[in-house]
Specification:
Blueprint: H1 3-17, E1 23-27, H2 31-43, E2 54-58, E3 61-65, H3 74-84, E4 93-94, E5 97-101, E6 107-109, E7 112-114, E8 118-124, H4 130-136, E9 141-146, H5 151-163, E10 171-179, E11 187-197, E12 203-204, E13 219-220, E14 229-236, E15 239-254, E16 261-265, H6 266-269, E17 281-286, H7 287-310, H8 315-333
Parallel strand pairs: 9-10
Antiparallel strand pairs: 1-3, 2-3, 2-7, 4-5, 5-8, 6-7, 8-9, 10-11, 11-15, 12-15, 13-14, 14-15, 16-17
């Protein structure tokens, strides 16, 4: 990264971190350039909030921003509730691996960087090789929640995490939330889908490359809206393979639930499940719990949007807050 471009890029990112801009888009960013920017940001005191930003790098376009919707925190809320009620990811070790939450963590892909809304990792306690460290750095399960994105982009994001992580992300669960109208924002539908790699389609590409199948480019399959599968071609070291991600299940959660729960299996969570245990259910996420959390976040988002629309407190609001603070002040002096 040249000195001039470094200064310009870091200035754009600092505006986002300072809350001046919601996000910035920087074109012409390669993976090498991103790594240099990442190292620069981590070394500068005036970019200390870099690790808290949401980053996406795709097609050499870097998007840096902060989550603009409360809804993107749904999964953290949901898993907190599940763990409190004795559900959620398992504790302890299974075949040498322990499941931990990664939240929103950068995932390095063949075509850039993606930050899922939530993730689970199967960590090996004492990684003894470079491959073990690599496996530990990728989540096995990731979640994507869509409020303003289209169904098509949500499906593509899921397929991208599957295909371009070289299959290290083993399951992507998407939650698509739609509204009746932009003005009223009345909840219309909530739908969950699961995406996995189609292992039957995983095959080495022929020596003579098919010009229609470019490296690290996803192509939707069929005319579905959104597509139910994506194909791509990706390098594994010196070899090139065809990969395919497909939607393996989909269910409506609202207005009428079509399933009682989403089941997370051993082959989703763990990289090496014991033979015969691949399809064992490790834990279930009740669709009623998903809807309850979505509705609570809908209420919080509505209040947040109303507050933003008003810009400032009314005089009545201000008086109420003043009286509440004075009351607290008097109690602390008693």
């Amino acid at each position: 990264m040249s000195e001039s471009s470094s200064v310009k890029t870091s200035a754009l990112i600092r505006r986002v971190m300072a809350g001046v801009d919601r996000q910035c888009c920087i074109e012409g960013v390669s993976m090498d350039l991103y790594d240099k920017l990442d190292n620069l940001a981590r070394s500068r005191d005036d970019m200390a909030r870099w690790e808290g930003t949401r980053v996406e790098l795709c097609d050499e376009t870097l998007v840096v921003g902060h989550p603009t919707s409360i809804g993107h925190e749904i999964m953290g809320h949901l898993f907190t509730d599940l763990c409190r009620d004795g559900g959620g990811q398992p504790e302890g070790f299974y075949n040498g691996a322990q499941i931990i939450t990664g939240g929103t963590t950068d995932v390095r892909l063949a075509d850039g960087i993606k930050v899922p809304d939530y993730s689970l990792y199967a960590l090996t306690a004492n990684p003894s090789s470079s491959l073990s460290h690599t496996l530990n750095s990728y989540p096995t399960v990731a979640w994507e929640v869509a409020y303003s994105e289209t169904e098509r982009k949500l499906a593509r994001d899921a397929a991208r995490l599957i295909c371009f992580s070289h299959g290290l992300v083993q399951l992507v669960v998407t939650i698509n939330i739609t509204h009746m109208q932009v003005a009223t924002k009345e909840l219309a539908t909530v739908r969950c889908s699961c995406w996995e790699m189609d292992l039957d389609a995983f095959e080495k590409a022929p020596a003579k490359a098919d010009p229609s199948r470019k490296i690290n480019v996803l192509s939707p399959e069929g005319d579905g809206t959104p597509p139910k599968a994506y194909r791509g071609t990706v390098k594994f070291g010196e070899n090139t393979y065809h990969v395919r991600a497909k939607e393996t299940q989909s269910c409506q959660v609202y207005p009428k639930p079509e399933k009682d729960a989403l089941h997370i299996l051993r082959r989703h969570l763990y990289r090496e499940p014991s033979e015969g245990e691949e399809d064992d259910v490790v834990f279930a996420i009740p669709t009623a719990d998903i809807l309850r959390v979505v509705l609570s976040h809908e209420q919080a988002r509505a209040s947040h949007d109303e507050d933003k629309a008003r810009k400032n407190f009314t005089e009545s609001d201000a008086d109420t807050l003043i009286q509440a603070l004075l009351s607290k002040k008097s109690r602390t002096r008693e």
